[in-house]
Amino acid sequence: MTFVFPRESLRAFPPSLHPDYKSTVKRAPKRPLVVTPHTLSELTGPVYGHDNIRRGDEDLTKQHTGEPLGERIVVHGRVLDEDGRGVPDTLVEIWQANACGRYIHKRDQHSAPLDPNFTGAGRTATDAEGRYKFVTVKPGAYPWGNHPNAWRPAHIHFSLFGHSFLSRLVTQMYFPGDPLMAYDPIFNSVGDEKARARMVSRFDLATTEPDWALAYEFDIVLRGRNQTPAQS
Amino acid sequence: MSGITPSQTVGPYFAIALTPGGDEWTPTVGNNLVTPDASGERVRIEGRVLDGDGGPVNDAMIEIWQADAAGRYAHPADKRANPNAAFRGFGRAGTDTGGSYSFETVKPGAVAGPNGPQAPHVVFAVFARGMLRQCYTRLYFSDEKANSADPILGLVPQERRATLIAQRQNAGGHAVYRFDIRLQGESETVFFDV
To answer: Does A4 touch chain B (CB under 8 A)?
Structure first.
């Protein structure tokens, strides 16, 4: 299949400069971007999939001798292209805070406790239909210095590749009903309400495992349409 | 469902999963792209990421994507790629407290372009806390005559092209290309709308 990567699709993205998110002010490019055609350098991209994951990478609750504290959850969904086709065998990487809202990163100085049984990093690859699945704990909200009493809504960071370097996506998955989303300048940097809603997972009772874990479904749509003419 | 999933910032803590350095997790890929079978000149690419005040960005993630020394990409869309080659052409690095990053790689060959070949180049994607979406740019090599005929460089205003040219230096017999990325300011790096 030959893929094309429409620029119009990028309207769903936030602008580089969103002054409510203060760190963008000195880091957003100010000069006009130079429009260029998509050459072989853009139409290709890193190919990472099942060969790059190790057994257990997708279960963040089993990476240590004990179990992490917190609400155990399944996070699953499909990675799709703009035609709604599943993107098979593509790498999905995630990272997150623990149930108390603390990252293991040394620069995270939030006073909430670390959990010796939780790293907060995971990795898997999609199956032939583009499906992926992680087991983890629900991350906590945490304060940050953007404005007085700023708290990030609970979120899981996602990193994806897709069909080319142009479909590369780093995003965040949010949880339905989180009251902090309304106050979060990062979430609200996406101007379009429908586009914002695509970053919010769906509570998925059907996938919940009784007496064990709740579940959330999160589908991710990457840039890329199939240009191959339909077979008649 | 219609529409793509929006980008969000990589945030300050991506290093726990994506870049090397921690004890707790082995990242998928690091900043050394060289494989035993990779032909071509071994080079180091290094530089700093700077913000609008000229200060170091100590929490940026740089990803690079490049062809091999024969100008082939390790991807199904490049039919000339040698499927058995170990060279993948992809690397990832985080910046340090001084905003510095580096890659060990091989110099890519010329790549097919829309109207004739493109000069050897490396595609960069820049991510950071405070960047809501990645920015794409390209590194070109200062010692390549083909730069003057490159179709992409030709689209860049003449006075800004220098921001895309990495300067070759020799450090102990090892070729080093210096490539600073300025997110803002008078010498702001050219970023592409792709």
So the answer is: no
